[in-house]
Design brief:
The protein is built from 13 helices and seven strands. By secondary structure, the chain is α+β, with helices and mostly antiparallel strands.
Amino acid sequence: MSIETSKLQIGSILISEYARAMIDTDVLGNDVAPVLMGLFGEVGGIMAAAKKHVREGNAFPGFRAAAEEEFGDALWYFAALCRRFNVPIENIFEEITLDAAFRKSCAASDLFAGAVACIATPKRVNIDDALFELGKAAAVLLHAESEDSQIHINLKLFAVRYLEALGSTGLSFAAVVRTNQSKAQGAFVTPDPSVLPRFDDGFETEEQIPNEFRIRIEERKTGKSYLRWNDVFIGDALTDNISDPDGYRFHDVFHLSYAAILHWSPVFRALIKQKRKSKTLYDETEDGGRAIVIEEGLTAWIFARAKSLNHFEGQGRVSLDILKTIKEFVSGYEVEACPLKLWERAILDGYSVFRKLRETRGGYVIGNRESRSIRFEELG
C-alpha cells in the first residue's frame, strides 16, 4: 500500500447496500440484452481466472485478484439484470439460503449493535463441476425474456451456482462485493470533491505543487518543444522521437493535467524542483526516480492507445480497460487513492488541451488545483 492510503473496509456487507450503491454505476440503459451478454462474458472470465487461481496457487498471486475481480464484475451484471426484471437481488440470495443444501450457522454480526447473522454456506463442489454448472446457469439466463415466468427461478439457480463456484475457489464473498463496489463507484460515479485526496496538505509551500500554474509551451523552428514557467525554461527540449510525427513533443501537458486534477505528478515536481524533501519517505518513494519512470511510462502507454482513438476527440469516456490498467500501473503509490473517474477527467481534459497545442504549435497551459482544472490559452 502507498503512504496514507486507506484499505477497503473488512467485515460483512448487506447485499441490499451493495445493490443500492450500484444503481448510479449502471450506464447501460434499460435494455436487457447488453446486460445478459455482459454477464455471460464475465462468467467466461471467471472460468479462466478461477482455474488459474486454484491450480497455480501462490506461484501466481495475481490470479487471486483477477478471480476476485471477475466474480465481482459478474455480480455487477447480475445485480443489473435483477433490476431490469424488478427482482431485488437481496431477495434472491435470501431465498436460496433457505434451501437445505446450504449449511447454516450462527454468528455475531458486525453490521448492527447486538445483531445475530445467519451464515449460509453452499455445498462443497469440485471446481470443474462448479464452473461448468455456473456456465450452464448463465446460458439459461442468456435466453431470458421479460415475460418469462421462469425468470425468478432461473435467477435463483444462477445465484446458487455463483456461490458454489465462489466457494470452490476459496474466495471471500464480502471481499468480492466490497472490491467491486469500490471499483464500479470509482469508475462511474463523479466523486465528491471534498473527499478527494490532497497529497500536499501538511507540507510547506515550496514543497507543494502550485495551487495555480501557467506554463508556456512553444514549438521552435527546429521542431522542438520548450517549456517555460515564470519566464524560466524548465526541462529539456522535446521532439516526437518517432519517424511518424504524432505531437508527442507536447506530452508534458499530460503531466500538467495530472498535477492540476489528480494533485500528483512526480515529473512536474522534478521539473519545478518542488519535491517533498522534508520527509525522506516521500522524497524517495512518491517523488523519486521510480515514481517518475512510472508516470512517464504510463503517459506513453496511454498516448499509444489514444492515437488509435483520435486522441479522444469527441469522446466523453475512457474505456474501463484503460482505466483498470492505469490502476495497475500506479499500484503502491499515493495516487492509487484517486478514483478512476478522476483519472478519466485528467485524461480527457489533458487531451483536449493537447489537441489545441498540436494544432497551434504551442500555447499556455493553465492549471488550478483548487478547481482541479486545466485549460488552454493561445500565445499572445
